[in-house]
Amino acid sequence: MAAALTTKAILTANDVRNGDIVFWTAEQSWSTSIDDAAIGFSKDETDQLTQAGEQAEAANTVVGAYLIALHPCITMTITTNPLSKPARASSAIKLNAA
Fold first, then answer.
1. In the chain, N or C terminus with fewer CB closer than 10 Å?
2. Contact 49, 1 (CB under 8 A)
3. Which residues pair with 62 in a beta bridge?
4. Per-residue pLDDT tens over the stretch 45-67
5. Do 5 and 81 touch, CB atoms closer than 8 A?
6. Burial (CB count <10 Å: 0-12, 13-18, 19+), residue 70
7. Does residue 5 surpass a pLDDT of 80?
8. 38 in Cβ contact with 91 (< 8 Å)
9. 11 strand-pairing partners
10. Who has greater pLDDT, 16 or 94?
């Protein structure tokens, strides 16, 4: 997993049981709702999100964990980090539209 971001971010991955897109929550569990996602507001918090993703991958709970950078001024507006994969929310919309 890539190094943590220095901006606001959320952690996403795919559930290994069913392939669902999931988001790491403040309750330290995975949710299919982006509204439940824990937001890392500082480098320390995004480092903790990165660590949670690495641990979940090692436990074979999820695959493909990575951080999605959030717009600095708006809590849940997702912007694509040019160094990361495309935002999973965009992928979900394409899959549902097909």
1. C
2. no
3. 15
4. 999 999 999 999 999 999 999 99
5. yes
6. buried
7. no
8. no
9. 67
10. 16
Per-residue DSSP letters for the chain?
-PPPPSS-EEEEEEETTT--EEEEBTTSSEES-GGGB--B-SHHHHHHHHHHHHHHHHTTSEEEEEEEEBPTTSTT-B---TTSPPPHHHHHHHHHH-
What the block records as the tokens of 61 is 């709970």
Per DSSP, the three-state class of 15 is strand
Q: Which DSSP state fits 86?
A: P
Coil, strand or helix at 64 = strand
List the one residue out of 16, 21, 36, 34 whose CA is nearest residue 85: 21
Distances from the Cα of 79 to the Cαs of 28, 35, 70, in angstroms? 23, 16, 6
Amino acid at 21: I
